[in-house]
Amino acid sequence: MSAQAAIAVVGASGHTGRFVVSEIKRRGATPIAIGRDTAKLPIGARAARVEDAASLDAALRDASAVINCAGPFFDTALPVIDAALRARIPYLDVTAEQLTALNIHRQRDAAARRAGVTVAPAMAFYGGLGDLLASAACGGWDAPDSIDLAVALDGWHPTAGTRETSRRNTAPRLIVRDGRLTPIPEPAPRRIWNFGDPFGALEVVATPLTETVLIAQHLTVNAVTAYMNLAPLNDLRDPATPSPEAVDGSGRSAQCFRVEVEARCVGAIRRASAAGRDIYAITAPLVVSAALRLLDQGGRAGVLAPAQAFDARAFLEALAPQDVRVDLSS
Fold it and tell me: Least buried of 112, 182, 274, 304, by fewest C-beta within 10 Å?
Protein backbone atom coordinates (compact mmCIF):
# COMPACT_ATOMS: atom_id res chain seq x y z
CA MET A 1 0.00 0.00 0.00
CA SER A 2 2.75 2.47 0.92
CA ALA A 3 4.23 2.46 -2.59
CA GLN A 4 1.01 4.03 -3.87
CA ALA A 5 0.49 6.19 -0.79
CA ALA A 6 -0.16 9.89 -1.09
CA ILE A 7 0.95 11.50 2.17
CA ALA A 8 -0.18 15.04 2.89
CA VAL A 9 2.36 17.33 4.55
CA VAL A 10 0.92 20.37 6.31
CA GLY A 11 3.60 23.04 6.63
CA ALA A 12 5.47 21.64 3.64
CA SER A 13 7.34 24.89 2.97
CA GLY A 14 8.88 25.00 6.46
CA HIS A 15 12.36 23.79 7.36
CA THR A 16 11.26 20.38 8.71
CA GLY A 17 8.44 20.12 6.19
CA ARG A 18 10.90 20.24 3.30
CA PHE A 19 12.89 17.36 4.79
CA VAL A 20 9.67 15.37 5.20
CA VAL A 21 8.57 15.98 1.60
CA SER A 22 11.99 14.83 0.34
CA GLU A 23 11.87 11.71 2.52
CA ILE A 24 8.42 10.77 1.24
CA LYS A 25 9.73 10.96 -2.32
CA ARG A 26 12.85 8.97 -1.40
CA ARG A 27 10.65 6.23 0.04
CA GLY A 28 8.65 5.93 -3.17
CA ALA A 29 5.42 7.55 -1.97
CA THR A 30 3.78 10.74 -3.22
CA PRO A 31 3.81 13.90 -1.10
CA ILE A 32 0.89 16.31 -1.14
CA ALA A 33 2.38 19.67 -0.16
CA ILE A 34 0.00 21.84 1.86
CA GLY A 35 0.63 25.35 3.13
CA ARG A 36 -0.93 28.69 3.80
CA ASP A 37 0.89 30.30 0.89
CA THR A 38 1.25 28.14 -2.22
CA ALA A 39 3.65 30.70 -3.71
CA LYS A 40 6.29 29.18 -1.40
CA LEU A 41 5.43 25.63 -2.52
CA PRO A 42 5.94 23.65 -5.73
CA ILE A 43 3.40 23.60 -8.53
CA GLY A 44 0.45 21.42 -7.58
CA ALA A 45 0.60 22.29 -3.89
CA ARG A 46 -2.64 22.85 -2.02
CA ALA A 47 -3.57 25.87 0.06
CA ALA A 48 -5.24 25.47 3.45
CA ARG A 49 -5.66 27.40 6.66
CA VAL A 50 -6.22 25.75 10.00
CA GLU A 51 -9.02 28.17 10.83
CA ASP A 52 -10.87 27.08 7.65
CA ALA A 53 -12.10 23.48 8.05
CA ALA A 54 -13.37 23.31 4.47
CA SER A 55 -9.94 24.22 3.09
CA LEU A 56 -8.33 21.50 5.19
CA ASP A 57 -10.86 18.94 3.99
CA ALA A 58 -10.17 19.90 0.38
CA ALA A 59 -6.40 19.78 0.91
CA LEU A 60 -6.59 16.23 2.35
CA ARG A 61 -8.65 14.91 -0.57
CA ASP A 62 -7.25 11.54 -1.73
CA ALA A 63 -4.53 11.58 0.96
CA SER A 64 -3.65 8.27 2.61
CA ALA A 65 -2.22 9.94 5.74
CA VAL A 66 -1.28 13.40 6.96
CA ILE A 67 1.92 14.60 8.63
CA ASN A 68 1.62 17.97 10.36
CA CYS A 69 4.87 19.97 10.36
CA ALA A 70 3.22 23.37 10.86
CA GLY A 71 4.13 24.76 14.24
CA PRO A 72 3.44 26.18 16.67
CA PHE A 73 1.22 23.17 17.19
CA PHE A 74 -0.76 25.03 19.85
CA ASP A 75 -2.58 26.45 16.82
CA THR A 76 -2.52 23.68 14.24
CA ALA A 77 -2.66 20.25 15.89
CA LEU A 78 -6.33 19.94 16.83
CA PRO A 79 -7.76 21.42 13.60
CA VAL A 80 -5.59 19.17 11.43
CA ILE A 81 -6.42 16.14 13.59
CA ASP A 82 -10.12 16.88 13.19
CA ALA A 83 -9.69 17.05 9.42
CA ALA A 84 -7.83 13.71 9.48
CA LEU A 85 -10.64 12.14 11.50
CA ARG A 86 -13.21 13.41 9.02
CA ALA A 87 -11.09 11.94 6.20
CA ARG A 88 -10.54 8.69 8.17
CA ILE A 89 -6.75 8.80 7.65
CA PRO A 90 -3.83 8.51 10.10
CA TYR A 91 -2.46 11.71 11.61
CA LEU A 92 1.15 12.25 12.71
CA ASP A 93 2.98 15.38 13.82
CA VAL A 94 6.39 16.52 15.04
CA THR A 95 5.50 18.65 18.04
CA ALA A 96 7.89 19.13 20.94
CA GLU A 97 5.19 20.99 22.93
CA GLN A 98 4.27 19.00 26.04
CA LEU A 99 0.93 20.75 26.52
CA THR A 100 -0.08 20.10 22.92
CA ALA A 101 0.76 16.40 23.18
CA LEU A 102 -1.20 16.17 26.45
CA ASN A 103 -4.20 17.96 24.97
CA ILE A 104 -4.21 15.63 21.97
CA HIS A 105 -4.30 12.61 24.26
CA ARG A 106 -6.95 14.10 26.53
CA GLN A 107 -9.17 15.73 23.94
CA ARG A 108 -9.01 13.54 20.81
CA ASP A 109 -8.44 9.94 21.92
CA ALA A 110 -12.14 9.09 22.13
CA ALA A 111 -12.88 10.73 18.78
CA ALA A 112 -9.97 8.90 17.12
CA ARG A 113 -11.24 5.59 18.49
CA ARG A 114 -14.74 6.26 17.17
CA ALA A 115 -13.32 7.16 13.76
CA GLY A 116 -11.04 4.10 13.71
CA VAL A 117 -8.01 6.34 13.11
CA THR A 118 -4.48 6.30 14.56
CA VAL A 119 -3.26 9.65 15.87
CA ALA A 120 0.48 9.75 16.64
CA PRO A 121 1.73 13.10 17.96
CA ALA A 122 5.41 14.00 18.49
CA MET A 123 6.83 11.39 16.10
CA ALA A 124 10.08 13.35 15.88
CA PHE A 125 13.58 13.83 17.28
CA TYR A 126 12.06 15.45 20.35
CA GLY A 127 9.40 13.06 21.56
CA GLY A 128 9.22 9.95 19.43
CA LEU A 129 12.91 9.06 19.37
CA GLY A 130 13.18 9.25 23.15
CA ASP A 131 9.99 7.24 23.67
CA LEU A 132 11.17 4.50 21.32
CA LEU A 133 14.65 4.36 22.91
CA ALA A 134 13.19 4.24 26.41
CA SER A 135 10.75 1.48 25.49
CA ALA A 136 13.45 -0.54 23.74
CA ALA A 137 15.74 -0.19 26.75
CA CYS A 138 13.02 -1.30 29.16
CA GLY A 139 12.28 -4.39 27.08
CA GLY A 140 10.02 -6.69 29.06
CA TRP A 141 10.12 -4.69 32.28
CA ASP A 142 6.52 -4.08 33.34
CA ALA A 143 7.29 -1.32 35.83
CA PRO A 144 10.81 0.18 35.70
CA ASP A 145 11.88 2.27 38.66
CA SER A 146 13.23 5.17 36.60
CA ILE A 147 14.08 6.34 33.11
CA ASP A 148 16.66 9.07 32.49
CA LEU A 149 17.17 10.51 29.02
CA ALA A 150 19.97 12.86 27.99
CA VAL A 151 20.44 14.81 24.76
CA ALA A 152 23.82 16.21 23.71
CA LEU A 153 24.00 18.71 20.86
CA ASP A 154 27.17 20.43 19.73
CA GLY A 155 25.04 23.50 19.11
CA TRP A 156 21.57 24.54 18.08
CA HIS A 157 20.75 26.90 15.24
CA PRO A 158 16.99 27.23 15.75
CA THR A 159 14.48 27.83 12.98
CA ALA A 160 12.03 30.71 13.13
CA GLY A 161 9.33 28.20 14.07
CA THR A 162 11.41 26.89 16.96
CA ARG A 163 11.93 30.43 18.24
CA GLU A 164 8.21 31.23 18.01
CA THR A 165 7.30 28.03 19.83
CA SER A 166 9.88 28.75 22.54
CA ARG A 167 8.47 32.25 22.99
CA ARG A 168 4.90 31.01 23.37
CA ASN A 169 5.57 27.80 25.28
CA THR A 170 5.02 29.17 28.78
CA ALA A 171 3.27 26.13 30.29
CA PRO A 172 5.12 24.50 33.21
CA ARG A 173 7.43 21.73 32.02
CA LEU A 174 6.54 18.29 33.32
CA ILE A 175 8.58 15.37 34.61
CA VAL A 176 7.38 12.09 36.13
CA ARG A 177 7.61 11.61 39.88
CA ASP A 178 5.78 8.96 41.92
CA GLY A 179 4.30 7.68 38.68
CA ARG A 180 2.62 10.97 37.73
CA LEU A 181 3.32 13.93 35.51
CA THR A 182 4.26 16.83 37.75
CA PRO A 183 5.82 20.29 37.24
CA ILE A 184 9.59 20.31 37.23
CA PRO A 185 11.05 21.60 40.52
CA GLU A 186 12.96 24.85 40.75
CA PRO A 187 15.84 24.96 40.28
CA ALA A 188 15.73 22.32 37.56
CA PRO A 189 17.77 19.19 38.38
CA ARG A 190 21.33 19.10 37.02
CA ARG A 191 23.95 16.39 36.78
CA ILE A 192 27.07 15.36 34.87
CA TRP A 193 26.42 12.91 32.04
CA ASN A 194 29.26 11.12 30.25
CA PHE A 195 28.20 10.78 26.62
CA GLY A 196 31.50 9.32 25.46
CA ASP A 197 33.07 10.42 22.18
CA PRO A 198 32.82 13.00 20.77
CA PHE A 199 31.00 14.87 23.54
CA GLY A 200 32.58 13.48 26.70
CA ALA A 201 31.28 14.39 30.15
CA LEU A 202 28.91 17.38 30.11
CA GLU A 203 26.77 19.21 32.61
CA VAL A 204 23.13 18.66 31.72
CA VAL A 205 19.97 20.28 33.03
CA ALA A 206 16.47 18.82 33.12
CA THR A 207 14.74 19.93 29.91
CA PRO A 208 11.67 17.73 29.49
CA LEU A 209 9.86 17.83 26.17
CA THR A 210 7.27 15.56 24.58
CA GLU A 211 9.21 12.33 25.25
CA THR A 212 8.19 12.59 28.90
CA VAL A 213 4.49 12.90 28.05
CA LEU A 214 4.68 10.01 25.58
CA ILE A 215 6.45 7.69 28.02
CA ALA A 216 3.92 8.51 30.74
CA GLN A 217 1.06 7.48 28.45
CA HIS A 218 2.04 3.82 28.31
CA LEU A 219 4.87 2.90 30.71
CA THR A 220 4.31 2.42 34.43
CA VAL A 221 7.43 4.11 35.78
CA ASN A 222 8.12 5.91 39.03
CA ALA A 223 10.37 8.66 37.66
CA VAL A 224 11.23 10.06 34.23
CA THR A 225 13.71 12.91 33.74
CA ALA A 226 14.97 14.24 30.41
CA TYR A 227 18.16 16.32 30.29
CA MET A 228 20.03 18.43 27.75
CA ASN A 229 23.52 19.90 27.76
CA LEU A 230 23.85 23.65 28.26
CA ALA A 231 25.41 24.82 24.97
CA PRO A 232 22.33 24.33 22.75
CA LEU A 233 20.06 25.93 25.34
CA ASN A 234 22.32 28.97 25.40
CA ASP A 235 22.16 29.08 21.58
CA LEU A 236 18.37 28.95 21.70
CA ARG A 237 18.19 31.83 24.17
CA ASP A 238 20.61 34.00 22.16
CA PRO A 239 18.70 36.06 19.56
CA ALA A 240 21.90 36.40 17.54
CA THR A 241 22.19 32.65 16.90
CA PRO A 242 21.63 32.15 13.16
CA SER A 243 19.20 29.73 11.50
CA PRO A 244 20.41 26.30 10.35
CA GLU A 245 22.83 26.30 7.43
CA ALA A 246 22.97 23.42 4.97
CA VAL A 247 26.34 21.78 4.40
CA ASP A 248 25.33 19.11 1.87
CA GLY A 249 22.92 18.50 -0.98
CA SER A 250 20.27 17.04 1.32
CA GLY A 251 19.99 20.31 3.22
CA ARG A 252 21.35 18.90 6.47
CA SER A 253 23.41 21.08 8.77
CA ALA A 254 26.67 20.04 10.42
CA GLN A 255 24.98 19.80 13.86
CA CYS A 256 25.76 16.56 15.70
CA PHE A 257 23.53 14.91 18.29
CA ARG A 258 23.56 12.00 20.69
CA VAL A 259 20.59 10.73 22.71
CA GLU A 260 21.12 8.29 25.57
CA VAL A 261 18.63 6.48 27.81
CA GLU A 262 19.25 4.73 31.12
CA ALA A 263 16.41 2.60 32.50
CA ARG A 264 16.61 1.09 35.99
CA CYS A 265 14.62 -1.70 37.58
CA VAL A 266 15.42 -3.37 40.92
CA GLY A 267 19.11 -2.55 40.64
CA ALA A 268 19.52 -3.52 36.99
CA ILE A 269 20.42 -0.90 34.36
CA ARG A 270 19.70 -1.04 30.65
CA ARG A 271 20.82 1.51 28.08
CA ALA A 272 19.98 2.59 24.55
CA SER A 273 21.37 5.37 22.39
CA ALA A 274 21.10 7.08 19.03
CA ALA A 275 23.50 9.45 17.25
CA GLY A 276 23.55 11.36 14.01
CA ARG A 277 23.42 14.76 12.35
CA ASP A 278 20.80 17.52 12.37
CA ILE A 279 17.83 17.22 14.73
CA TYR A 280 15.48 18.68 12.12
CA ALA A 281 16.60 16.34 9.34
CA ILE A 282 16.38 13.15 11.44
CA THR A 283 12.73 13.91 12.15
CA ALA A 284 11.90 13.14 8.50
CA PRO A 285 12.85 9.42 8.43
CA LEU A 286 11.26 8.97 11.86
CA VAL A 287 7.85 10.40 10.97
CA VAL A 288 7.76 9.10 7.38
CA SER A 289 8.73 5.59 8.48
CA ALA A 290 5.92 5.75 11.02
CA ALA A 291 3.38 6.90 8.44
CA LEU A 292 4.36 4.17 5.98
CA ARG A 293 4.22 1.49 8.68
CA LEU A 294 0.72 2.59 9.64
CA LEU A 295 -0.34 2.39 6.00
CA ASP A 296 1.33 -1.01 5.43
CA GLN A 297 0.42 -2.69 8.70
CA GLY A 298 -2.52 -0.75 10.04
CA GLY A 299 -2.66 0.50 13.59
CA ARG A 300 -4.81 0.55 16.67
CA ALA A 301 -7.30 3.40 16.71
CA GLY A 302 -6.81 6.21 19.19
CA VAL A 303 -4.06 8.58 20.25
CA LEU A 304 -0.89 6.52 20.59
CA ALA A 305 2.69 7.09 21.66
CA PRO A 306 5.17 5.74 19.09
CA ALA A 307 6.04 2.73 21.22
CA GLN A 308 2.33 1.89 21.50
CA ALA A 309 1.89 2.05 17.73
CA PHE A 310 5.06 0.13 16.85
CA ASP A 311 7.48 -2.42 18.25
CA ALA A 312 10.14 -0.03 19.51
CA ARG A 313 13.19 -2.22 18.91
CA ALA A 314 12.09 -3.28 15.42
CA PHE A 315 11.29 0.31 14.44
CA LEU A 316 14.67 1.62 15.59
CA GLU A 317 16.65 -1.24 14.05
CA ALA A 318 14.96 -0.61 10.69
CA LEU A 319 16.14 3.01 10.50
CA ALA A 320 18.86 3.53 7.90
CA PRO A 321 22.32 3.91 9.50
CA GLN A 322 23.04 6.93 7.32
CA ASP A 323 20.09 8.63 9.01
CA VAL A 324 20.80 7.64 12.62
CA ARG A 325 23.06 5.16 14.36
CA VAL A 326 21.18 3.22 17.02
CA ASP A 327 22.75 1.09 19.77
CA LEU A 328 20.41 -1.21 21.70
CA SER A 329 23.10 -3.66 22.80
CA SER A 330 23.15 -2.79 26.50
Answer: 182
Q: How far is residue 59's CA from residue 75's CA, in Å, rounded to a whole number?
A: 18
* Domain 127-279 CATH assignment equals 3.30.360.10: yes
Report the alpha-carbon distance of residue 111 to residue 128 in Å, rounded.
22
Residue-wise pLDDT for 215-253, tens only, equals 999 999 999 999 999 999 999 999 999 999 999 999 999
- CA torsion, ordered 95, 98, 104, 109, to nearest 10 deg: 120
Quick check: pTM over 0.90?
yes
Domain with CATH 3.30.360.10 in the chain: 127-279
Question: Using alpha carbons only, what angle is made at residue 257 by residues 90 and 28, rounded to the nearest 5 degrees?
Answer: 40
How many whole angstroms separate alpha carbon 174 and alpha carbon 182?
5
Which residues does residue 8 pair with via DSSP β-bridges, in sequence order? 32, 66
Find the angle CA(263)-CA(266)-CA(270) to the nearest 5 degrees.
25
Asked if the bond preceding 208 is cis, omega within 30° of 0, the reply is no
DSSP 8-state class, residue 126: I
Taking residue 301's Cβ as centre, other Cβ atoms within 10 Å add up to 17
Question: What residues form DSSP beta bridges with 264?
Answer: 146, 269
> How far is 175 from 143, CA to CA, in rounded Å?
17
Report the CATH number of the 2-124+283-314 domain: 3.40.50.720
